Amino acid sequence: MPNIYADMLTRMGGELYFGMVGPVRTGKSTLSSALARHLILPYITDPYEKERFIDELPQSAEGKTVMTTEPKFIPRQMIEVNLNQDQTLKAKVRFIDSVGFMSKDALGGMEDGKERMVHTPWSEEAVSFETAADIGTNKVIEQSGIVLLVTTDGTIADLPRQAYLEAEERAVNACRESGKPFLIVLNTSMPAGAAAKETKNYIEEHYGVEPVILDAKNLTLADIERVMTKALASFPILEIEIAMPDFICMLPKEHPLRQSVLTYLLTLKDGFDSIESLVDYTFEVPKDSGIVSCHVSNVNSCHGTATIQMKLEDAAYYAYLSEITGESIETKECFAAYLKEIIAERGAYRSAIASLTEAQEKGYSIMLPMQEEITLEEPALISSGGKYGVRMQAMAPSVHLIKVPVTTEIAPIVGTKEQAEDLIAYIKESDREGIWDTNIFGKTVGELVADGIRNKVSLIGDDGRAKLCESMEKIVNDTTNGLVCILI
After folding, report:
1. pLDDT-based confidence at 171, cuts 50/70/90?
2. CA 331, CA 338: separation in Å to the nearest integer?
């Protein structure tokens, strides 16, 4: 399990720090000892250190009597071990075995008919054994990197399943209140038995958590792998990336499709809090939202990141293309045909933009014709001084852009002199953008100016434009630095 260990080490800051909590008499000490033997003991090479480690393992026994009386650190001094044979994955592994919350009918909390009083590091006065157990268990939860909550179906001790229910619920609530990632381990002597299955269903129904079923007395490497995999999945999700078509981000904020997608994403934010809850999440896509499906496409347990892939209807994309192009685009073929047309016209657009820019800067510019616009006449034989040649004449349309200032004026009659002066003062006080929106007799200043410019330009007329074209043709074709006189 090198990958699982490596991922857990990343999430737990280089230390595998497990806290064992839950009701008393559920096999916490047995599981701690078994895990320690598998995860730590094989990698201790010093024989004396190995012997000392075995001596520090917790004891366990049958019956109703509580065996653990205080939190126990395994090993007592944290040691670094190699978790793989090539010694490339080193980790500090440690277990904290707690007393746990007292189960009903468990023995050890009473002595001679009275509450058993104990001294703890957390109180100057002696407290009851049950109170000390509660405090110690909560301390274990606080100090752990991840909590293993051990419970049972009633097959490992002389206590029935009902005796554990209250303490089990307290343990689950304590883990949730702490915010620590936790995993429920169902310890049973018959993992495939009916009691284990019934208890598993109860835990899933009441706590919304799927437990790992195992026999702590006969723990196998497969059991450990299931525990580690499940434990890693209980860590919180730190970052979720939503993979969706790029065009969604280009839509205006008020666009219905973008609003629909954002609304759905907001409904997801409280749907999962751990890796496991995300992986098991059922995405219910609302109808008429434009969303076809959502699914988890990638999960990185090591860093707590995941990717949710969102697929949208093809019609939504084509509707977006139709909006921005002003053309009806319903299929890939339509879009390809539109691109082909645009590419064909791109040269002319570039020439027009360059000519417009030159006309703005210099007052005059010419849009040169495209090659396909040039008409080439039949070649003709010519002679000059006894020599012969060939004359080829070409004709092509050229567009001439002339920057001509057009002046217009607005002279509204508003009434008295005072009213006119008030209007002047109002216009001067307005910002430059606001002047255009000033309303005068039902029209804004901007509309009045535009009307004035259109009226002046329209006075040229078709005849005037034709004569202007003839004049430009003569200037271009017939003059060579000569004087040109235009009479209007």
Report:
1. very high
2. 11
Longest dimension (CA), the chain: 144
Is-contact 294 285, C-beta < 8 A?
yes
Residue-wise pLDDT tens digits, 24-34: 888 888 888 88
What is the Rg, in whole angstroms, of the alpha carbon atoms belonging to the chain? 43
Its pTM stands at 0.59
- Give the integer Cα–Cα distance in Å for 41 and 120: 30
Task: Please give the average per-residue pLDDT across 105-126, as a whole number.
Answer: 69
CATH of region 2-233: 3.40.50.300
State both tokens at 463. Answer: 């005849």
Degrees, nearest 5: CA angle 213-218-222: 60
| Confidence bin at 62 (pLDDT 50/70/90) | low
C-alpha closest to that of 329 among 340, 343, 318, 316: 318
Strands 146-152 and 364-367, sheet pairing: unpaired
- Joined tokens for residue 241: 């990336």
Question: Residues 133, 24: contact at Cβ < 8 Å?
Answer: yes
List Cα–Cα distances, 411 to 240, 407, 425, 433, 439, in angstroms: 63, 13, 15, 20, 14
- What string of H, E and C letters represents the secondary structure of the chain? CHHHHHHHHHHCCCEEEEEEECECCCCHHHHHHHHHHHHCHHHCCCHHHHHHHHHHCCCCCCCCECCCCCCEEEEEEEEEEECCCCCCCEEEEEEEECCCECCCCCECCEECCEECEEEECCEEEEEEHHHHHHHHHHHHHHHCCEEEEEEECCCCCCCCHHHHHHHHHHHHHHHHHHCCCEEEEEECCCCCCHHHHHHHHHHHHHHCCCCEEECHHHCCHHHHHHHHHHHHHCCECCEEEEECCCHHHHCCCCCHHHHHHHHHHHHHCCCCCEHHHHHCCCCCCCCCCCEEEEEEEEEECCCCEEEEEEEECHHHHHHHHHHHHCCCCCCHHHHHHHHHHHHHHHHHHHHHHHHHHHHHHHCEEEECCCHHHCEECCCEEEEECCEEEEECCEECCCEEEECCCCCCCCCCCCCCHHHHHHHHHHHHHCCHHHHCCCEECCEEHHHHHHHHHHHHHHCCHHHHHHHHHHHHHHHHHHCCCCCCCCCC
Confidence of residue 192 (pLDDT cuts 50, 70, 90): very high
Q: Which sequence spans correspond to the domains of the chain?
A: 2-233, 239-320, 333-403, 404-488
CB 129 within 8 A of CB 115: yes
Lowest mean pLDDT among 3-12, 252-261, 368-377, 456-465: 3-12
Decide: residue 101, CB within 10 A, 0-12 exposed, 13-18 middle, 19+ buried. buried
* Distance from C-alpha of 253 to C-alpha of 235, rounded to nearest angstrom: 34
